[in-house]
Amino acid sequence: MGGSSPLPLSLQSKFQRARAGPLARLRDYRTNLNILRNIIFALFLLRTFRKSFYFLRGHGILGSLSLLYHSTHKKLYHIFLNLPGVRSKVAAQLTAARLDLENKLAPTGPGINRYLHLPKEPWTKEQLSAELESLSAMKRTRWEEGKVSGAVYHGEDSLLDIQFNAMRLFSVANPIHADVFPAVRKMEAEVVAMVLALFNAPDTGAGVTTSGGTESILMACLSARQKGYAERRITEPEMIVPHTAHAAFHKAASYFKIKLHVVHCPAPDYEVDISRVRKLINPNTILLVGSAPNYPHGVVDPIPSLSKLAVAHKIPLHVDCCLGSFLMPCLAKAGFPSPFAEEGGFDFKQPGVTSISVDTHKYGFAPKGNSCVLYRDRQLREYQYFIAPEWSGGVYGSPSIAGSRPGALIAGCWASMMAVGEKGYIDATHKIVSTKLTIENAIKEHPILKATLGVLGKPSVSVIAFESLDPAVSVYDIADGMSRRGWHLNSLQDPPGVHAAVTLPMTRSGAVDGLIDDLVATVKEEKEKVISEEVTGSGVVGGAVVKEQKKKGNSAQLYGVAGSLPDKSIVEQMVVAYLDTLYKA
Ligand SMILES: *Cc1c(COP(=O)(O)O)cnc(C)c1O
């Protein structure tokens, strides 16, 4: 620019001298910016490289390719479902499914009184008790006859009376006001202390009560996430859970933005694959998880091996004993093998175990709405606390999700635990695990059952799960056949299966024999259907093979058809329809 400049030389040099400072600074600034940009880019590359490295190490090359294949398949299928012609068909079928659900779950019509507004005049006592009687007489599954898996864990009048009495005495109590309701605070602390003792917590042990297993698990995951942030500045937390771990861990991952690694639990044991857990551990891992036992198959994960990993990598380990609750600690005293007894057990005796969830409202026989989460020390518990020191309503703190909490339920829990006592829990464990064994042996030994059904894994407590060994017989049709006979068993997927969680009503005389008889009858029936289908199927009518369209039951519909689709959005929409129906007044 100097040569073509119209300015006289003297002035030019003056001008340049005046500008030299800012120009050089600008150039410096540019170089600095470039360096900064390069550093940021290098960091970005490093991060991407690190992420890819941990991904590849975690899943292996084949695993990563398979994940890629599945996600592509899913995306393509999703596009297919949204093609104009397909989309309207899917929508029509979903509407039909929704109506079907409404008719089943929330029927309306003559003879059904619906109340959609407050009564203008208060109801009389007589009116109220008449209506409540008729509500309680609504047609339902007879859990009293032991025909329901899980759901009601005790249900005997003697214990119910004790609970009602305790709950009446504390019906207005709310532990958020510890000074107003000192007795409820005392009972709550004692419930936690008694459960800590059952699970061999060290002297440093601490815990809280919650509204149920899900909240206990949410709190344990939150505590681990907060610990990871506070002590290791982890901002992209990840946790590693078995494929068979409870859905509450998926909920925690979703609520608290924790990346979830779901680890395969291979047949025939269905225990979590430890080598895969090890490979997935990386600097962002905030929590390992094992179940004692898991919900689907009643199988206890290898807690001692998980504990070793947790200690070696200094990562918290949560043991989900929600379902196992008071059965697990009572197994040995009730005369059954206790998992990993020689290797230090499944509870706080394992040095790596940092938290345990225990549902007092399952085999602790407390009223529904009770659970505990236990920690190895107070610091871990503190990580789940919520504190708002500057709230306009006053300095606020609460231990878990809820603010106000039902003191009545705590009283009901405390009273149940005192009324059943250690002896009562050991007796109950004996009855429940014996009944589970009766079913297990029947499936393994009864000629009709063993030819068609196979027990999944080695269940050690109250749950017994089975699959169909006969490719022509769907295990979901067996679940539906059992439903027609008045049973309420639970369907599982991946692999397809059905389970029964034995509770006290099922241990009462006759119930388990009825279950086995009905299972035999159902299996026979399904086998006969297969044979008759083969016969009609080969009948040639007018040159065409006639195949009778089987009417599928609920389980078969949901898991057989929808469940086999690669893209789960249809299943999700069916679940939305179900959840919506729950609130149809
Ligand atoms: C029942 C259960 C839970 C928690 O369930 P809630 O319904 O919230 O009490 C957690 N884990 C397992 C293995 C369970 O069976």
Automatic annotation (TrEMBL):
GO cellular component, one term: endoplasmic reticulum membrane
Membrane topology: Single-pass membrane protein
InterPro entries noted in UniProt: GrpII_AminoAcid_Decarb, PyrdxlP-dep_de-COase, PyrdxlP-dep_Trfase, PyrdxlP-dep_Trfase_major, PyrdxlP-dep_Trfase_small
GO molecular function, one term: sphinganine-1-phosphate aldolase activity
Principal location class: endoplasmic reticulum
Example of a GO biological process term: sphingolipid catabolic process
Pfam families: Pyridoxal_deC
Cofactor(s), by name: pyridoxal 5'-phosphate
EC number assigned by the record: 4.1.2.27
Residue(s) carrying N6-(pyridoxal phosphate)lysine: K362
Pathway: Lipid metabolism; sphingolipid metabolism; Sphingolipid metabolism
Protein's UniProt keywords contain Membrane: yes
Subcellular location per the Swiss-Prot or TrEMBL entry: Endoplasmic reticulum membrane
Keywords: Endoplasmic reticulum, Lipid metabolism, Lyase, Membrane, Pyridoxal phosphate, Sphingolipid metabolism, Transmembrane, Transmembrane helix
Protein's UniProt keywords contain Lyase: yes
Family per similarity comment: Belongs to the group II decarboxylase family. Sphingosine-1-phosphate lyase subfamily.
Protein name from the UniProt record: sphinganine-1-phosphate aldolase
Gene this protein is translated from: DPL1
